[in-house]
Amino acid sequence: MSSTEPVIPQKRNLESEERHQYQTRSTTTTSIPNNQQLDSHDIKALYSKKKNIVINKFKPIISYKPIDFEQFNAPLAKSSFDPNFHIIEDIPFNTRRGFQYSPCRPNPDLSLLKFSTSDLPPFNASLSYFDRSSGTFISGDYNSVTTDKGWLSARTNIPIQEGKVYFEFNIVNSNEQSHVRIGVGRREASIEAPIGFDAYGYGLRDKTGQKLHLSRPVKFMKEGFKSGDVIGFLVELPKTEFQDIVRDQIAIRYKNRLYFERFDYTPTEKMEHLLNPVTVFGEKAIPDLNPFKPDFLPNSSIKIYKNGEFIGTAFEDLYAFLPPYSEQKNNINKLNNNGTLGYYPTVSVFKGGIAEINPGPNFKCKPNDLEPDVKEFHELYNEKIADDVVWDIIDEIEAEAIQTTIDNSS
C-alpha cells in the first residue's frame, strides 16, 4: 500500500448475503431446519427473520486472562549446534496445514473484537518467528538463520507488495560443506525446501551463482558468492489496485499465549504441476502440449548487486500473487485477500550455512545510483503496522454493524 495515499477502506455490503458463515478447523455453521437441535458451542448468534443462524464471525470465543496483559517474549533456548543461535519454543509455526498465526493482545477499547493485532520483539523488519521451518535456528536479533540439517528456509515477517524495494543478504558462512540460497518467495513457497524449488519462489545459488525458479538452474552470477559477500536485491513490483482486506481471523490460545489464527494460502495443483509438466498414462510420461501459463506482473523484476556492484536482472515478469492467483484452500471464501500476500525475502540454509537479512537502514553496500523512489525494506514495517491498526478498526466497525443486525432480528 502506498504511503503517499490515504487509506480509504472499501465499503462492505453487510446485507449482501442471507447469512454470515464462519469456518473454524472443526465446524462450519450455516442455515438450519427449524427442528434441528444445535450444540451450544456452535451457536454464537440469534435467529434472523429468515430462520437462519446469523453468526458474528468477529466475536472471540475466549475471554481475558491476567497473563494476557503481560509483555510476551517468545521463549528462547540456546542451540547445541551453535551457541550464537536459538531455538524458539512453544509457538505455533505456519506450516503447510493451511493455517497461519500472528500475535495478538487484549484491547478493551474494541468492545466486540476484544483483541487487536500485535507483534513480538524486535519490533522491526526481520525474519519471522512463525514463517520458517521448525528445524532452523535463529539469532538473537532475528536477522540470521542456520540449521544442522538439509535444506530448510525462513522468510521475513513482512512481504513486498508493490513498488521498488532494496534490501541485502550478508553471507556469513558458505563453503564446500555449508551452503546458502537467497531470494524471494510467496506465502505458498515451501519452507521445507530451498528458495527457488517451486513456482512460488525465485532464488540464487551460492556455489555456482545460478538463478533458480521451479528448480531449474540458469547461469547468472559467474563466480557465485561465499562467506563475506553482500548480495543486494532490488525488487520491483507494479502498483496494486486497492483490495478489500478480509482477514477472517480468530483469537486462540496456544501454550497459554494469544495468537490470531487465520487461513493461509496453499499451493494449487496447476502451480505445482509446473514443476513437472507431464501427464502420466500407465508407464508413459507425456509432456503437456498446452501447459498452464500463470499470469505475471507487468514491469516486475529482481535486480542483483554483489558487494555494491550491479550484476544484472535475475528475473522479470514475476507471477501474480493476488487472488485469484492465490487461494485459501480450506476457506469457504478461498479468494480472500487477508493482507499477507506478496513476495517475502527468504533465506535457505544447508548443514551449517548462515545468512543474514539486512533490511536497512545501515546497509553495507547500498548502491549509489538507486532511484529516489526506491524504498528500504525496513520502511515497510511501519506501513504494515499502520495497516493492521486501520483494519482492526474496520473489523470492529463491521462487527458492531453485524451485531446490530443480529440484535434487531431477535
From TrEMBL:
Gene Ontology CC annotations of this record: chromosome, telomeric region; Set1C/COMPASS complex
Name of this chain's protein: B30.2/SPRY domain-containing protein
Gene Ontology biological process terms, A to Z: subtelomeric heterochromatin formation; telomere maintenance
Entry's localization field: Nucleus
Region annotated Disordered, chain positions: 1-36
Keywords tagged on the record: Nucleus
Organism field: Wickerhamomyces anomalus (strain ATCC 58044 / CBS 1984 / NCYC 433 / NRRL Y-366-8) (Yeast)
UniProt biased composition (Basic and acidic residues): 12-21
Domain of life: Eukaryota
UniProt KW Nucleus keyword: yes
Listed Polar residues bias regions: 23-36
